[in-house]
From TrEMBL:
PANTHER family on file: HOMEOBOX DOMAIN-CONTAINING PROTEIN, HOMEOBOX-LEUCINE ZIPPER PROTEIN MERISTEM L1
Domain of life: Eukaryota
Major localization class: nucleus
Keywords: DNA-binding, Homeobox, Nucleus
GO molecular function: DNA binding
Descriptive protein name: Homeobox domain-containing protein
Annotated Pfam families: Homeodomain
Positions of the DNA-binding region: 41-82
Boundaries of every Homeobox domain copy: 39-81
Cell compartments where the protein resides: Nucleus
One cellular-component annotation, GO: nucleus
């Protein structure tokens, strides 16, 4: 909303001049009340139609083109602000994850329990652990086949197994 008002020359120090100076923002030429009204409309409708832009231009003393560009600039600024906020949040989350990763890696190197920070006692050798892992995988596969077989049999008989996973 650049160029809302023409430059005003005030001679003397009258109360009216103080009000105009207090209400006027020298950066972009719009008054605080005009900014407040435009921002209020922007919150409700960031993409105003031509009718609303025309109404705003009349109320703010601007051309419809100026109102259009103000909304365009405000959307761009808001999007940039949101992206900076998201980037900052991602950076903080990334730092938190890095710290967590370092703690896990250190715990793995020192073989400490992540919950109690105590020294982990390894009771089984690697070959026993591998054997148990393989047996666990075999048993899971066997359970999957048995459940599938049971479901198929029940389906053929018009029944269902409510506790089984789909």
């Amino acid at each position: 909303m650049d160029g809302l008002h023409e430059a005003t020359t005030v001679v003397g120090n009258t109360d009216d001049a103080n009000v105009v100076a207090a209400d006027h923002n020298n950066n972009d030429g719009e008054t605080h009340s005009e900014k407040k009204m435009a921002k209020s409309v922007f919150r409700d409708c960031p993409y105003p139609d031509e009718k609303l832009r025309k109404d705003l231009s009349e109320r703010l003393g601007m051309s419809a083109q100026q109102v259009k560009f103000w909304f365009q600039n405000k959307r761009t600024f808001s999007k940039g602000k949101m992206q900076r906020w998201e980037t900052q949040n991602h950076w903080v989350e990334n730092e938190r994850l890095k710290t967590e990763h370092q703690a896990i890696m250190l715990a793995m190197q020192n073989k400490t329990c992540l919950k109690c920070r105590g020294v982990m006692v390894q009771t089984q050798d690697t070959s026993e652990r591998q054997r148990l892992y393989t047996e666990n995988m075999r048993l899971k596969e066997e359970l999957l086949h048995a459940t599938t077989y049971l479901k198929e049999g029940l389906r053929r008989n018009g029944m269902s197994l409510s506790w089984a996973r789909n």
